[in-house]
Design a protein that fits this description.
globular, single chain, alpha+beta, 6 strands, 6-stranded mixed beta sheet
Length: 143
Amino acid sequence: MPFTFDQHELADANDLLVVDAGIDQHNLKEPALACVRPLSVFARDRSGEVRGGAVGRTWGECCELQQLWVAESERGCGIGAALTQRFEAEAKQRGCRIVYLDTFTFQAPHFYEKQGYRVVLETRGFGKGIAKYTMQKTLHLAG
């Protein structure tokens, strides 16, 4: 075999870009990826500063909530729930029936359960009782 192999804890940024570009080039052969649309909702204070955000994407009937964050000083005031509701409302407008996300035990699984999400996959092995949950919520479209 005419190759050498090396492993790294911290890979060279250019090497990582080559892998990313290769995956992108392969994925772009799938015409359905042209339908992937970013989706973001932000909560701003009176000065316009972002105090929370929900970031993800929609594709067909699926919506992925990739990030949900609320400034620590604003937590517990309903901002996270409002962001999630607005994010889901836009997903419904786009025809999505499913919203999914990943969260760890030390993040917000209980928050998401209160929002109607349920665990569909649990991954353990991170140590010290930490688990990663893939959670899902079904959106009911009108009509």
